[in-house]
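Quick one:
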Amino acid sequence: MDIFRKYDETNLHTIEDYIREGQEENLFLDFKLLADPTLSKRDDRKSLAIALSGFANSEGGIIVWGVDARKNPEGVDVACDRKEIENLSLLLSRLNQYTGDAVDPLLGGVLHKKIPSSGDRGFAATVVPLSDSGPHMAKLGENRYYKRSGDSFYIMEHFDIEDMFGRRKKPKLLFTTKILSRSDLNFRVIVALENIGRGVAKSPFLEINLNSPYKIADFGLDGNGSFGLTALPPSLGSTSYKYGASSKVIHPGIVHDVTAVSLNRERVQEFREVPDLVINYKIAAEDMRMVESTKTIPTKDLLA
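Output:
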């Protein structure tokens, strides 16, 4: 769910629909009332701290201020009435003021906005992103860790907190290929690693095995014998090609070319026809488990 897009789209009509249709609170949506827009009441500040902690320690979410939620016959909290807030400008100022103190460590990316119905009266909305720097403790007198489950916030158990301390931005490398065809059997397949994770891939490693009559291109990636990662010496008796570099990193969203595969034309005559290219590979990086798999590229794609 794109909570920032949902937050941007939340307006007065959205809130009116919530109340008319009895919108359920869920993993990403919470309705809250306020005693005072100054947030001078402890319960109001507590509600803010718990919601920021709970959403940040889960999957993120949106708080709508000024909507009363009550349990329906099925026991689920649903929007049932509007309790509009006076002086929205003051509330927005207080929300911005207390957000920095509401959780520890500081949570970035939290946004608040007014949703007026008339003048400076109406509702407000807060978006809380999923955090990779948690767990975040609810402060402002609460001093406990919270998490979102279903339509409620609950106090995190010790094992939950331990698990959260282990949450870090991690890399995720994918094996990718790109065919560069010049003419007939004279083609190259560029082998690359793409980081689709949220963390930097440090010390990337790639090992590949090729079926005959395929080989590593004689002149590397650029025709000058260069590779995207250092070519490592093979193990005794191994026919695999290995590449790695302890000083190399692949940033999130980057496709990093490693090596190139071509056809060993001297051995083509041993085959009645050119076979599919089958690449068995292993991928690894710091903070990432080794991935082993196979990619097959049909002959018709190679010769197209």
